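Researcher: Next entry in the queue.
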Amino acid sequence: MLGRLLHLSRREFDLAHKEAVDESAEWRYRFDEERERANKCIKELTEVCCLSQGVWYLSRLGSTISLLRWKFFVWFSLLEFELLF
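Model: Structure for this entry, 85 residues:
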């Protein structure tokens, strides 16, 4: 009787342990999926930030070039005006 009771308790323990291991594996799988998704988002965000920073640099460079063109135009106009008179 006691042996049978111990055997049933052992079976219940083994079953509960198996369920706990399965649940742990499921949570680990979910964690790994979320980590992978988070890493992908971080990578995309980094790319977007680098791209926007590059766009900012290019726009700054473009405005600098525009300013230089304007200064050259003014300088050239003044030079041309002086050469005419």
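Model: The first helix runs from residue 2 to 84.
Researcher: Noted, moving on.
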